[in-house]
């Protein structure tokens, strides 16, 4: 598998999203339309300029050190939680550490999501290696399997060809608006292990997805060796109890709660009339960023519009888009996730 330079890779991916830029030009000119309609009326004409396209290329360039530093920080926090739990074996300490570890598992998955768009390093082979070793395999999924599912989600957002949508469509747990009591019961079910089988099924679905023909295919023995080495290290160090209680138990109890809230925030309780309200952006304060919205995951609408932009450049992309009045007026944006300030995502999915 050949590699390209960082700038060439950024340019290639930015050019891949020229169609998205063209569609965005129509959106920003007011030519938004419901899926299936062709007669939308334009309230104004605002074009995406060459300057914006150049800005998009700049923002699509990778800075590998930033992504790798974020991964290192996430793992450092995980290591600190394990250390604290072992040094202070009190139930409340272990519960607190389990919550923080689940939040960091989610953070690792967010960067793995970037890796599915080849947004960690410029070499696709090393992008997937690093993603699998440090992000995906520790939580029992594969980057290649997730990518096959996720790119279909991008191509067919909220349609019958969107695998994420079809897995949830028609299921009562994914129907909104929902009462506060119904949502609380659903989250409690996840927290008490009710999401365990759902997680296993999702892991199976993602692991079974096949990469495209032009992508490097993972070697099964590599993944097997990874888990054998990991199990050996845990056995030799006598860490099975902490690993089971602080890593895998949170992964199947606390993490499903976080993932459900994020999934709701990204694609539910929305108008679905045009591309600017098929998803949403939401702001997050320090607590929400720590527990639910790491690594700029709240800029999900902007990510869908321009997936070539790595997560650490999404705030700059958002600032550039806000200069277009039609985007500022029509993009679905919330002030918080859980209602800590302003209009929250919960305001959208719960009845008034």
UniProtKB/TrEMBL annotation:
List UniProt keywords, sorted A-Z. Membrane, Transmembrane, Transmembrane helix
What InterPro entries does the database record attribute to this sequence? Answer: FA_desaturase_dom (IPR005804), Fatty_acid_desaturase (IPR012171)
The signal peptide stretch is none
**Does Cytoplasm count among this protein's keywords?**
no
Q: Which GO terms describe its cellular component?
A: membrane
Domain of life of the native organism: Bacteria
Coiled-coil region list? none
Cross-referenced CDD domains: Rhizobitoxine-FADS-like
**A GO biological process held by the record:** lipid biosynthetic process
- Is Membrane given among the entry's keywords? yes
Mention one GO molecular function.
oxidoreductase activity, acting on paired donors, with oxidation of a pair of donors resulting in the reduction of molecular oxygen to two molecules of water
Residues that span the membrane, as ranges: 67-86, 92-112, 224-249
Name all Fatty acid desaturase domain ranges.
Answer: 90-324
PANTHER family in the record, alphabetically? DELTA(5) FATTY ACID DESATURASE C-RELATED, FATTY ACID DESATURASE 2
- Write the protein's name: Fatty acid desaturase
Source species taxonomy: Bacteria, Pseudomonadati, Planctomycetota, Planctomycetia, Planctomycetales
């Amino acid at each position: 598998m050949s590699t390209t330079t960082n700038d060439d890779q950024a340019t290639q991916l930015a050019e891949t999203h020229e169609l998205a830029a063209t569609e965005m030009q129509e959106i920003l000119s007011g030519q938004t339309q419901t899926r299936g309609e062709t007669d939308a009326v334009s309230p104004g004409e605002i074009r995406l300029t060459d300057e914006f396209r150049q800005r998009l290329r700049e923002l699509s360039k990778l800075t590998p050190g930033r992504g790798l530093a974020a991964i290192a920080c996430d793992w450092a926090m995980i290591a600190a939680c394990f250390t604290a739990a072992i040094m202070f074996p009190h139930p409340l300490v272990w519960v607190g550490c389990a919550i923080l570890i689940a939040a960091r598992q989610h953070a690792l998955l967010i960067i793995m999501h970037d890796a599915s768009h080849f947004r960690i390093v410029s070499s696709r082979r090393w992008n997937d290696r690093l993603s699998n070793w440090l992000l995906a395999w520790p939580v029992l999924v594969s980057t290649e399997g997730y990518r096959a599912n996720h790119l279909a989600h991008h191509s067919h957002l909220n349609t019958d060809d969107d695998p994420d949508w079809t897995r949830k469509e028609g299921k009562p747990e994914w129907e909104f608006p929902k009462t506060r009591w119904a949502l609380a019961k659903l989250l409690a079910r996840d927290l008490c292990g009710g999401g365990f089988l759902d997680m296993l099924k999702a892991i199976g679905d993602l692991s079974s997805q096949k990469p495209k023909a032009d992508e490097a295919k993972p070697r099964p023995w590599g993944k097997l060796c990874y888990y054998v080495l990991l199990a050996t290290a845990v056995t030799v160090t006598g860490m099975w109890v902490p690993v089971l209680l602080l890593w895998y138990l949170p992964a199947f109890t606390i993490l499903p709660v976080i993932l459900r809230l994020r999934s709701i925030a990204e694609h539910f309780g929305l108008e679905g009339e045009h591309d600017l309200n098929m998803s949403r952006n939401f702001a997050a304060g320090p607590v929400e960023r720590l527990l639910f919205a790491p690594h700029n995951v709240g800029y999900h609408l902007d990510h869908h519009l321009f997936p070539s932009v790595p997560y650490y450049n999404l705030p700059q992309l958002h600032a550039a888009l806000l200069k277009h009045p039609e985007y500022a007026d029509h993009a679905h944006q919330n002030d918080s996730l859980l209602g800590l300030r302003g209009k929250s995502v919960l305001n959208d999915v719960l009845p008034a």
